[in-house]
Structure formats: C-alpha cells, structure tokens
Design a protein that fits this description.
Elements lengths: L2 E10 L2 E7 L1 H6 L5 E5 L7 E9 L4 E7 L3 H7 L6 E2 L1 E6 L10 E7 L3 H13 L3 E8 L8 H7 L2 E6 L6 E2 L2 H10 L6 E5 L2 H11 L5 E5 L15 E4 L2 E4 H4 L2 E3 L5 H8 L3 H12 L11
Parallel strand pairs: 8-9, 8-12, 9-10, 10-11, 12-13
Antiparallel strand pairs: 1-2, 1-6, 2-5, 3-4, 3-7, 4-5, 13-16, 14-15
C-alpha cells in the first residue's frame, strides 16, 4: 500500500521533516527505532530513525538531511505525495527506564532521534538534561520541542552564534564537573561526535549509549551490511541495535565502513543530477 505524506517542511537549510500516514507502524513504534522507506519501485531502500510518532493520529515523523540521491528526491516531494514502501518499526527500542538523572545529547540531525528518547526518559520518571548542538544557529532543529520535553536544555554551536561557543561535549563535561550525579549519557550524532564523547566520558565512569547508523540494506539481519564491532564481537545494528555501549564500539571501523561506497554514492548522485539511471551491482 502507498504511504501518504501529510506534512512536509524544511526546518533548517537542507534539513526536512516529513510526516507520513502509517497507522500500523505508528501503533507499534517506540523511542530508538527506525524505518526503511522506498520512494518508488526503482528507488533504493534507506533507513531513517523515527523522530516522532502518534498512534492516535497514525503518523510517523522522519527528519533527514539532503545528502545523496534518495534524500534529494525526498526533499522534492510534497504533502499529498506517496511513498511506495515504509517498513517498520525496526530495531530494538531504546533501553528507557527510571535511572535518576540522564543526559541526552544530539548533534546536528542527530537531534531528531534524540527527541523521542527525551520524552520517553522523562515519562519514565527521570530528570532529563538535554544538550543539542550544530555548526551554527541556523542548523539547530527542534529546539522548542526539546525545551518543552526536558527538565533542562543546553545549546552549543561551533561558531558561538547561539548558546555555548564550542561543542556539546564541552557542555556535558561542565555538567559532570559541576557535581551533578548522572546515571547515563545518551549521545546521537555524527560518528566522530559519538567517538569523541565516548572518549571524554570514559574517565567519569558514566554509562554511555550511542545509536549507530552503519550501511544498511534489508534491516532484518540477513544481509550483514550493517555489521559493527562492539566489545570485539560482530553485531548487526538493525537487530542488535541501533543502541550500543559507546565504550565498546569500534568507531574507527564504523567510520571506515561508512566511507566504503563514497565513490559509488557520488557517481549515483551525479547520474541523478544529470537525469541518468543508476543501477546497483545486484542488477548488473
């Protein structure tokens, strides 16, 4: 069945929000899970974390940044357009329970998947301190929503255009150094951010969780494309995650695997821009 887009808006430069009518997915969705969508019969399948869900309304909200061929196609869609496939919810839900004080960190578009976790942790009875950051103020997303869902909200920008002049990790360090007793830190954002955060937090002995976004194809653990190394063991992000212990993740391997098909991705985007058809190796 086609899945109708009922809302579409650009919430930051090249960052878009889509609200999709998908009642069955919305009824089952939990914080930390994701979906895999396909625009039409010839499109690639891409995973996107669920940024919000409403079981009563029957909708799933996704937020994405224009990067490659498919996200640029998505960006051109409008409300009333339909998606061919919308599969989910996939992945293991976030481990949300009452712990005490929890810091949730979102960097860039990573703020989107942090948002439902902020709500869930607070609903579970935790004190929630949220820290969000971006390169500059124009790229900050969901600030009002995060403020409403959190007990405290801290903002950081690389250029100092809003909030702390620096990185989200600086803010987290300041909170811990202030003597705040923190039970858990959750960090979602670019791999380099999660790697740096894990390294910074290790001396504090605070449990740190990250949500990984490796290359993913089927989303069911069958293809092995999303394999990551956690604690020296191979895990599949689509079924074992996407949430893992940050101190056990091999981030260097993760980042090298993310770069494996960069040339092919660039070529496909170039073909798309020139209205040429892309074919995958499987089709060849």
């Amino acid at each position: 069945m086609p899945y109708k887009i009922i809302e579409k808006k650009e919430i930051a430069p090249s960052v878009h929000l889509l609200k999709i009518l998908a009642p069955d997915v919305a009824k089952a969705a939990k914080a930390g899970q994701f979906i895999i969508l396909r625009i039409d019969e010839t499109s690639e399948r891409i995973p996107l974390t669920i940024a919000d869900f409403d079981a009563v309304e029957g909708t799933i909200t996704i937020i994405f940044q224009e990067m490659g061929k498919t996200t640029k196609q998505l960006a051109k869609m409008t409300s009333s357009n339909e998606l061919r496939d919308f599969v989910g919810p996939l992945g293991t839900p976030a481990d949300v329970r009452e712990l005490g004080t929890v810091i949730l960190v979102g960097g860039g578009v990573g703020i989107a998947p942090v948002y439902p976790q902020v709500r869930a942790y607070r609903e579970a009875g935790n004190k929630v301190i949220s820290v969000i950051g971006a390169r500059n103020e124009s790229l900050l997303i969901l600030e009002d929503e995060m403020k409403a869902a959190s007990d405290e909200l801290h903002v950081a920008t690389d250029d100092g255009s809003k909030g702390h002049h620096g990185f989200v990790t600086d803010v987290v360090k300041n909170i811990l150094d202030s003597g705040e007793k923190v039970a858990r830190v959750v960090v979602i954002g670019p791999p380099i951010l999660m790697k740096v955060a894990a390294g910074m937090l290790e001396p504090y002995g605070v449990e740190t969780l990250v949500s990984l976004n490796p290359i993913m194809i089927d989303g069911t653990g069958m293809c092995g494309g999303c394999r990551v190394s956690v604690g020296g063991e191979t895990k599949f992000a689509c079924v074992d995650g996407p949430e893992f212990d940050a101190h056990k993740v091999d981030f260097n391997l993760l980042m090298s695997r993310l770069a494996l098909y960069r040339d092919e991705e660039s070529k496909c985007l170039e073909n798309h821009n020139n209205n040429h058809k892309c074919t995958c190796r499987g089709e060849n």
